[in-house]
Amino acid sequence: MKKLTTGLLVLVLSSSIAVAHAQEKKDTLKTKEIEGVVVTALGIKREKKSLGYASQEIKGGALSDGTTNTGNIAAQLSGKVAGLNVTTNNNFGGSSNLLIRGVKTLGGGNPLIVIDGSPVNNTYTQEKNIDYGNALSDINQEDIESINVLKGAAASALYGERGLNGVIVITTKNGKGKDDGSWGVTFSSAIQVGFIDKSTFPEYQTKYGAGYAQKFGAQAPDGLNYANFGADASWGPKFDPNLMVYQWDSFNPLSPNAGKATPWVAAKNGPIKFFNNPASYINSVTLEKGQKGKNISFTYENMMSDGLMPNSHLNKNNFSLKINYDLTPKLHSTFYSTLTLQDTKGRSITGYSNNTVTGFRQWWQTNVDLNDLESIYLANVDPKVASAANNYGNVTWSRKSAANGAPAYWNNPYFQAYQNYTSDKRYRSFTYAQVTYDLLDNITVTGKVSYDRSNLMAENRLAFGSLPQAFGQSNNSIGSGYARRDVLRNETNYDLMVNYKFDITDNINVSGVVGGNIRRNYMNSVYASTEGGLVVPGIYALSNSKKAPLASDEIESITQTNSGYVTASFDFFKKFYLDGTWRVDQSSTLPAGNNVYNYPSVTGALIMSEILDTKSWMNFWKLRANYAEVGGTADPYQLVNNYRSAGILSNTGIYNPILSQPNPNLKPQRSKEFEVGTEVHFLRDRITLDVAYYKTKTVDQIITLPVSSGTGFTGKVINAGRIDNSGVEVQLGLVPIKSKDFTWNIDVNWSKNKNEVIDLYPGITNLLLNSFQGGVSLNARVGEAWGTLVGADYTYVNGQKVIDPKTGKYLQNPNQVIGNTTPDWIGGIRNSFSYKGFSLSFLIDMRKGGDIFSTDMYYGLSSGLYKETAEGDYRDKPIVLPGVFPDGTPNNIGLSPFADNNAAVGYKTQPSREFVYDGSFIKLREASIGYTLPKSVLAGTKIYDAKISIVGRNLWIIHKNLPYADPEAMVGGGINSYGWSIGSMPTTRDLGINVTFKF
């Protein structure tokens, strides 16, 4: 991979420089302003050349024009920003995790999202192994003018306690209309279809069927064999078309094979046939009109999507309105409001238990045909025949025995999809109103109010006939039930800012902002469920509970932060820029005495091309440096004991025990960062280069440290831990060819971050972050990068694996470091070509390193599913594992596959270290071909602009090391997006056709 990437970069660079030199004199295009204006913190517009810190702007077209609409703008940032690591899973409507410049806090963390200067909620929600996505997916990409990524502390210092993980600044479009001042109408329509990338789904062996050993367990009265019904593995007897066997479908009267023995052969339709080709239909219309001081834009977008899983649908409607209006020549107003209504059905279950895809990847019988499962489900679920006798339609391959059709381990996957489906509805609105008054020529006053509100109502169903499982408030194992979660979040911001600008001399000026902010957050969450099962099948309501429901789990919090800030930006002769900012926050979630704190920053930018007069060959050169501090406050209820009701006993209220000991002396988290960088433009911007180096230290992190239960608690809230990050970011822009009709642009970004946990707490060297199925955990360990994977490793003698002389299997060494989820580097290369009305672009997205533990391989190899377990005569002879006995002599013990259930591979023999894979990948992330119709073709019509595009996403995984899965497809967002591959949905290659008409 390294050779491929290096060779590609060298080829691109050398050819680009050569062509650019050759064409420099032919370039007739006028040189534009080098940097332009970008939107920074608090919505402040700045000349980019004056900034003393790294930021990277992505125009709205670059986000959406070259790819299919993912429904989540976060996913469309993949590979486009140096230092921004985007992890996108394949869960239907699921989360995308954003990480800027490495993990800075022990619990992970996502950047702050800001729209037109106002923060918005980007909470990731997961409930009972369901990924409900992150709130950024509510943003309508049709509204986005640009996104500016503020990477470091100096860029985000004005956000104080919220700026620790960087900031994503989204600027929305203003209404423009037609040149004659009349209304403009834009209509866009897209159709997208996904096709499974087969490299991200298992390849099954087709030689052996159900069983834990190569023999049938029992015989029917007529002497024929029964299949191994209770075995959810494929280590059974060898297939033989002449061998007749009573299989799972022989015992259902509605099956065409009822009472019949059928040939013992591999299924024609394996689990990959279970999935659909997901399709999406996106239509939007924008009405806009604009002139100086008055413009309006209204957009409506509808997105209808079907997921990979049967019975999965998403319907999302977005409405947005933006008005800019000058009330007087000195009084300017802006109003923006967006409303999202989303209805989702059939989200996929994540993790291990009850996840259909986990069954496909780990515990399956290769003799089971999916078409037969679907047919028998449809025949038995009919209300006329559904009853306890046929498990209410849940006729499954995983029956307990020939005489007992109850599910042993797994439901029929179609019953799971159509009866045990989840559903959720989300309402999201974001609104702000702003007025600006030009008090003097050099002083303006701005007042602003913003309100962000989201409501999520999520329902979970467990239908009659289901395999009993842990469910609901009590988490007892039951065979039917209903649960719901209602979550309300809102945030209100009140801002008052005074912008000033003064000329100290003719060549020296100062500008800045003095302002204040009041932020109020409210959260209310209620979770309730039935207990003991449902009374009446098919009625999903809390009132349909066999037993009295437990007290609902309710959480409510109200927090407030008051802030003041001041900035000063000095411009010396347009050659040197010096900025300083200071912000003071007061948080309601910290104790008096520790709840007022400040965050400073200082930045400098030196325009060397002006000082040295290098414009003849280097038209722009800037050196920059900065130092800043940002931080984070505590979550609610960490200062004093708080109690949750557990119901009523003998007319007396009872409460759950307090598990985490609060801390009345908490301090805010703090991160300190130093950054230096340079930006150079050569050959009239034919070659541009931006390089940044940073070093960050984050201290006083607020964590819950596990403690001995003998203290009366299981955890204690403390300030502890230090994490250091340092890294390099590179942005390279090349224009190898630029002529009147043809242009070729290359945009390259690359970043490397080094992370280290310096300390945790006196006497503590490891903090558990997450536990995985298979005995592996995610940890923050002193002296290691955040994200250490800990589990069992081999035992070694002189570098060779040690065999247990009693069993012939490997001796395992528990609690060892077996990997780390932190990638070595990330990068992306975009090529864009335009010729007259045609355009072509493609994006290569890359990640090097970042280990992943595959629970699927850990179990799936042992259960005999994968093709590796049946190659050649692998199952027909004893296997001697490579290794030595403790005394150093070679192993000579053969393991019989007949007796040991394929003991040579999988979790029964190999330690978890064997199933840790390098998470590197190279992907053709995006590609598009577009054509804009000539004006001459549109003459005489009401259409003045028309474009058609063919777009694609995830078209080719060029390289990966993780078998049968996508290295990005983790369990969910947040902490669940690191290092764990289990039961993930296959990745799809998505193709779409987009058409846009402007009237």
TrEMBL record:
InterPro entries from the UniProt entry: Beta-barrel_TonB, Beta-barrel_TonB_sf, Plug_dom, Plug_dom_sf, TonB-dep_OMP_SusC/RagA, TonB-dep_OMP_SusC/RagA_CS, TonB-dep_rcpt-like
Sequence ranges assigned to domain TonB-dependent receptor plug in this UniProt record: 68-167
UniProt-listed GO biological process terms: siderophore transmembrane transport
Pfam families reported in the protein's UniProt record: Plug (PF07715), TonB_dep_Rec_b-barrel (PF00593)
TonB-dependent receptor-like beta-barrel domain location: 476-908
Membrane topology: Multi-pass membrane protein
Keywords on record: Cell outer membrane, Membrane, Signal, TonB box, Transmembrane, Transmembrane beta strand, Transport
MF term (GO), any: siderophore uptake transmembrane transporter activity
Cell compartments where the protein resides: Cell outer membrane
Signal sequence, start to end: 1-22
Classification via Gene3D superfamilies: TonB-dependent receptor, beta-barrel domain, TonB-dependent receptor, plug domain
Key word Repressor present: no
A GO cellular-component term linked to this record: cell outer membrane
Family: Belongs to the TonB-dependent receptor family.
Family matches, as NCBIfam families: OMP_RagA_SusC (TIGR04056), SusC_RagA_signa (TIGR04057)
PANTHER family in the cross-refs: TONB-DEPENDENT OUTER MEMBRANE RECEPTOR (PTHR30069), TONB-DEPENDENT RECEPTOR YNCD-RELATED (PTHR30069:SF28)
Protein name, as recorded: SusC/RagA family TonB-linked outer membrane protein
Native source organism of the sequence: Chryseobacterium phosphatilyticum
